[in-house]
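Design review, sub-item: ligand-bound model
Attendees: FS, YL, KQ
YL presented the inputs for the zinc ion complex:
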Amino acid sequence: MISFCSLFSGSSGNAIYLASDRTKILIDCGVSGKRIAASLTNIDVKASEIDAILVTHEHRDHAYAVGIMSRRYDIPIYANQQTWEGMQHLIGKIKEENRRYLYTCKDFCIQDIGIHPFAIPHDAAEPVGYNFYINNKKVTLATDIGHVNNELASRLEGSEMVLIESNHDLEMLKCGPYPYYLKQRIMGENGHLSNEAAGELIAHMVEKGTNQFLLGHLSKENNFPQLAYQTVYNILQSRGIKVGQDAIIEVAERNSTSKVYRF
Ligand SMILES: [Zn+2]
Ligand SMILES: [Zn+2]
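KQ shared the predicted structure:
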């Protein structure tokens, strides 16, 4: 069985829990170690039981407590070469045996969990999303995506569930308080995915057979949960996709754990 839970999701910090019957992992640790351990307790998991931490990219909202968690609970960290270099200043000293290297686009395993890290367009050194394979079922995590291309879309197809970024509402971003350069960065090819773009991508994935979606990594300033949900809902309905029947859409909360999804 696969267990999947969003512990924290948003521009202020991300941490995801995923487990098979034998193996428990975290993807990203972007809030304090204390808060991550407490959120794991909420879903009856001890931080000391975590077998590995995977990192998507070196930005603070993903890597902030990676080093703390590794040192406190003696957990190996998996990241690609450039992410290791990019997050070095943020995570502090890591025991040699807990420094594990993965390669973008190359499959690997952590015990019984198969993992495929795929490249995503984002302004970090070597950012990745992940496909996870357990018992022939696939779950995908894809946040911090500047834009969707065919290769990326194909990595998401066939998943039981996808946690997909729904970062901002375009109008809120354009009219909001951010300085011009930051707006350009977020809207750019290597920035973040808008609610509208997430809706289009989800419609494509529903047509390819996925029906469970968790919208994540919402911007605090340029989005809110009901708006992200409604925008995606409207796009799906306009394509003849019935939300609640053909597709289940939920929004991952910034500061509290989602339900534990099991497949
Ligand atoms: Zn990022
Ligand atoms: Zn991020």
